[in-house]
Amino acid sequence: MKQSLIAELSTAEVKEKLAEERGNYTKLKSSHAVSPIENPLKIKDSRKTIARLSTELNKRMSQEQASKA
Predict the structure, then answer these.
(1) What is the pLDDT of residue 69?
(2) Residue of 53, 68, 62 lying closest to 8 (CA atoms)
(3) What's the domain range around 55?
């Protein structure tokens, strides 16, 4: 998922996608440990998507706190 698409999502959608992506990452890691998956780059992509979503969420939270102060 690209950063431009993530920026268009609402905060609730970002949180939902983050939880979904973390679950997907856990499944990929466990299935890869048992037997190698066809495309191991999916693990890398999933990890990067989680990082992008977390970054966007943290950015929004800090902007929200700055606007309150």
Answers:
(1) 73
(2) 53
(3) 3-68
Give the C-alpha separation, 18 to 38, whole Å.
24
Q: What is the DSSP letter of 68?
A: H
* b/e sequence 23-46, b meaning 16+ C-beta within 10 Å: eebeebeeeeeeeeeeeeeebeeb
| pLDDT tens readout for residues 24-67 | 999 999 999 999 999 999 999 999 999 999 999 999 999 999 99
Give the span between the Cα atoms of 61 and 27, in whole angstroms: 28
pTM over 0.70: yes
> 46, 28 in Cβ contact below 8 A?
yes
Q: Measure the CA–CA gap between 28 and 2, rounded to whole angstroms.
A: 20
Tokens coding 29: 């890691």
Contact by Cβ (8 Å): 28, 20 = no
The number of domains in the chain is: 1
